Amino acid sequence: MNKRFHGIIFGLLTSLMVIALTTSVFAQGRGRGGGAGAGAGNAGGPPPGAGVDRGLGNASSRSNGRSDEGLGNASNRSNGRSDAGLDRARIASDNLNRGEKELRDHPGIANTLHMNANDLRAGYQDALTTNPNLTFGQYVAATRLAQNLSGRFPGVTRSAILDGLASGKSIGRTLQDLGLGSDEAKAAKKQAEREIKQGRE
User: Fold this and answer.
1) Whole-angstrom Cα distance, residue 48 to residue 62?
2) Within its chain, how far is the Cα of 155 from the centroid?
């Protein structure tokens, strides 16, 4: 009886040991298999295609898109401002050069305006900073009209006439806006033109 009982106990222990060893070996096999699989995949890292390089690549692509577009827009805007500024400077310079030539060829213009040539030149140059399209003839006419009309029409100043021209209005329209009637404006223009023409002779 004792021998039989001991045999049963021995068999159970043996079975338990076999089961334990089998479980241990299986677990180790899974561990190695999992490690090998991880190594074969991405060494335990993120799944293929989701690594650092890919992330940086995508970020770089997105950043390049934004930055290229941003730089392009900024460049375009800057070039637009720069081009416009250069055009204004060129036009003003061309007009100033033509004014210089006209003043040299017809020095009597300054006398007609009761000014010296240097003051006339400086005044015209200053006016060009506001309106580079202003011609020397327009500046001279605005000056003479203001001299002739300011006594009767205090609002008719050279600055007011130049402002009208800068806004795209004609001298006649500007004079009417400053209080002259249509006929008065025409007569004032003709008188100024006659006086300036005499100064050019």
Assistant:
1) 21
2) 38
Which whole-number Å values give the CA distances from 96 to 1, 133, 164, in the listed order?
133, 10, 20
Quick one: tokens of 149?
Answer: 């009309």
For residue 20, pLDDT over 70 is answered with no
**How many of the other CB atoms lie within 10 Å of CB of 198?**
12
Report pTM. Answer: 0.60
Q: Decide: 122 and 99 in contact? Cβ < 8 Å.
A: no
Summarize pLDDT for 180-196 with one digit per residue, the tens: 999 999 999 999 999 99
Q: Tokens for 64, please give them.
A: 């390049």
Enumerate the H helices of the chain as residue ranges. 2-41, 52-105, 108-112, 117-130, 136-149, 158-166, 171-177, 182-200
CB 99 within 8 A of CB 124: yes
Residue 127: alpha-carbon gap to chain centroid: 27
pLDDT at 143 over 60: yes
Closest CA to 143 of 164, 123, 172, 173: 123
pLDDT one-digit tens code per residue, 24-34: 444 444 444 44
Report d(CA 190, CA 195) in Å as an integer: 9
Could you tell me if 103 and 120 are in contact, meaning their C-beta atoms sit under 8 angstroms apart? yes
Residue type at 43 in one-letter notation: A
Q: d(Cα 143, Cα 157) in Å, to the nearest integer?
A: 8
